[in-house]
Amino acid sequence: MKTLIIFLLSIHILNAQWTKVDLPNTITAQSLLVDGNTLYVGGDSSIYYTTDGNTWNESSNIGEMYEGVTALIKINNRIFAGSFTHGVYESTDNGNSWIDRNVGLPAPAQVVEELVVRGNHLHAATLGEGVYQYDVNNTNQR
């Protein structure tokens, strides 16, 4: 009886282990986003995405960002990327081009740790500078 219990427990433990996702060697994964069947990974200065887990596509470089994409969120067809030192950028074409969304976000608050959406507002949690919000429907901010 003890052998059967140990065997069943070992099968459960084996099935519960983490397995590494094969990423291109150039990716330093710093954030993740899932949208439908697409997995996005925030790298050092761009994002990578895949629909099959094998073929990875790379976006264009995001502004002057070189320290990392620390947060990702997708609102409809718009991807917002938070960075370690350059604030928030937006892409409406799946990462082919990026628009700086830092008006009103002072330099000390451009270390973005997390992005979440609530209603019509995108919220950015910044390192030591509080939370800032951006009205995603305000065309004057674009």
Describe this protein's structure.
The chain has 142 residues and is mainly beta. It is 10% helix and 38% strand. It has one helix and eleven strands. A four-stranded antiparallel beta sheet has the order 1-2-3-4, with no helix packed on it. A four-stranded antiparallel beta sheet has the order 5-6-7-8, with no helix packed on it. A hairpin with a 2-residue loop joins β5 and β6. The termini are far apart. The model has no long low-confidence stretch (mean pLDDT 88).
Radius of gyration: 19 Å
* Helix/strand order: HEEEEEEEEEEE
Distance between the termini: 67 Å
Question: How would a crystallographer describe the biggest sheet?
Answer: 4 strands, antiparallel
Ranges where pLDDT stays below 50 over 5 or more residues in a row are: none
The order of strands across the largest sheet is 1-2-3-4
Considering DSSP H and I runs of 4 or more, what fraction of the residues is helical?
under 10%
Mean pLDDT: 88
Which class best fits the helix and strand makeup? mainly beta
Beta-strand content bin: 35-45%
Number of strands: 11
